[in-house]
Amino acid sequence: MHGDETDVPRKFSIWIRRSELRDAVQLMEIDALVWTSRTSPSPIKWASREQYLRNCPPGGQLVAVIGERVCGYLGFAAPTAMPCHRHVYEIHVAIHPAYRRLGIGSSLMAAMKELAAEEGIRKLSLRVLSTNPCAVAFYESCGFMMQGRLIAEYCIEGEYVDDILMWCPVIPPASDGK
To answer: Where is the N-acetyltransferase domain (predicted)?
Structure first.
């Protein structure tokens, strides 16, 4: 079911949890709807559920669920396998178009910051195309700051597009002893 705005209940509860094996098909659907030439240098097209699961294993995303519907996710992983890079999570966020502007992205980001702090992560980083100003504004509203800009990094459909690098510090949880 692709759904539209009329499928969203007037009153709803958003549940945030780690992704599970059973979420794969819905997450693949979100990827197909969200990652276009305006939001990604190379739109994501998964050949199979198995390919998806090899690249996006269960637990590697926080998912937002309304009822039984996965309506968005926030993927996270260390940027490299180097031990000196373990304090950073690189993230990406995707919300099903029918469920935008309901606070799902903000809920996912708050949950990610909490999880990252619990896991000893000190920095969240992401990349966003300059052709996606709504995403840039969203990330700024969540406390992200620009840390760099790769000018004309991509040529997408004949247009040179900047790659904006953003980051947000993760505040460690307060200790009882202060």
So the answer is: 14-171
